[in-house]
Amino acid sequence: MESEGYGYETAMGRACWSSRDPIGEDRGINLYGFCGNNGVNYIDAFGLWRIDRKTKHNWALATPEQGDTIRTLAKAAFLEPTEYLKWLKYPPKVKGLDDAVPTECKYYVPNTAVGALGDTTSSAWAKVRKVLTFGLGGTQKDYARRNLAEFRSKMESLGYRVEDEPNATLSVIQSILKRRDLAALMITSHGQDGMMTSSDGDYHVASDLRKDLDHKLALMYLNICYGAKDFYVSPMNPGWSGFISMYGSVYASTEYTYCDVGDGKLTQFSSPNLPSGDTSFTPFVSK
What is the pLDDT of residue 270? Predict the structure, then answer.
């Protein structure tokens, strides 16, 4: 196997990464090892922090190497650096985001993804019942539940623990947003002009829901009509972009949407605060 674009090459009949581990021999004599030769279960996007995500756990173990910082952990977990006291379990005592953390300590980052099903039986959805039935082979609830199942499949493949909420009333959504272990949230419901509809049948704008948000997330997946209309308005009214970290992403529609998770019909939006040269969390393919 040879793929120079991804830094993996063959040399003398064997395969190895083209760059040495910057920590040197401190973590073993194999200077070209990657995630302990367990790249399926471990993440090491920046060559330093290792995040072990397991679908049974709400928190993922993050293991640092010499010189790792809170900022590099935030990048690896796609979370907001300045909010680490909220999302990091057992945070270290450091003076700044760029100070090295103790390597002998254990750190845990949020590993929970929630798929929430709001109102799919309102009169607005009823008007398109025939479209949904004809095009997707079932009622609007069947379609919405299928999206929850597809969201679960995708996020579990990345190692996240996924929880379904089939009856997302306003109080339920508020309790979800307050969770410290929350990393990603999908909302499927009727929508209009960027607003989502809870199971109570009421519309809710992003600015109202954000009041209950414990910390900014790595991912928001808004399977609601015209969800992108309230992605970002201004610094004083960040809309749905205010739910994600500077390294996070929002997937939303610019029009009516009756699409399946990850089929490319929802547009991926990065945070307006994404630092130049950095990348955002993009688990779904956008066309």
Answer: 93
Q: What average pLDDT is seen over the chain?
A: 80
Could you please report the per-residue DSSP string of 136-166?
HSS-HHHHHHHHHHHHHHHHHHTT-EEEEES
pLDDT digits (tens, 9 = 90+) for 222-272: 888 888 888 887 888 899 999 999 999 999 887 766 555 555 567 889 999
Instruction: Note whether 234 and 133 are same-domain residues.
Output: yes
Same-domain check for residues 200 and 256: yes
CA gap 243, 204 in Å, rounded: 14
Total number of domains constituting the chain: 3
In a domain, 42, yes or no: no
Contact 222, 187 (CB under 8 A): yes
Residue-wise pLDDT for 25-78, tens only, equals 555 556 555 555 555 555 555 557 999 999 999 999 999 998 999 999 999 999
Query: How many residues does the structure list for the chain?
Result: 287
Q: Is 213 left (phi over 0), alpha (psi -120 to 50) or beta?
A: beta
Quick one: angle between helices 140-157 and 129-136, nearest 10?
Answer: 50
pTM: 0.79
Shared domain check, 148 and 119: yes
Rg of the chain (C-alpha set): 20
Residues 231-258 as b or e (16 or more Cβ within 10 Å = b): bbbeeeebbbbbbbbbbbbbbbbeeebb
Q: Which two tokens stand for residue 243?
A: 């739910």
Helix, strand, coil: what percent of the chain each, to 5? 30, 25, 45
Are both 11 and 95 inside the same structural domain? no
Return the CATH number at 123.
Answer: 3.40.50
Do 154 and 232 belong to one domain? yes
Tokens of 208: 């109202």
